[in-house]
Write a structure and sequence with these properties.
By secondary structure, the protein is an all-alpha fold. It contains two helices and no strands.
Length: 58
């Protein structure tokens, strides 16, 4: 069966990254938050949308 080399590489990188934290999702999440704080990249935060008022049918 044919395998996409990009997907294979992405999965290997993900597995290597997760193994650094013993596959603990909380530790991975903490690392991501730490990286965001030290990064100079600007992140966009969208405000929650307000639901549209329903039109009454007469």
């Amino acid at each position: 069966m044919w395998q996409d080399p990009i997907i294979k590489e992405t999965r290997e990188l993900r597995e290597d990254y997760a193994s650094k934290f013993k596959n603990d999702p909380d530790a991975i999440f903490e690392d991501i938050l730490k990286r965001q704080k030290t990064s100079k990249t600007k992140y966009v935060i969208f405000l929650p949308r307000k639901p549209k008022a329903e039109k009454k049918v007469a």
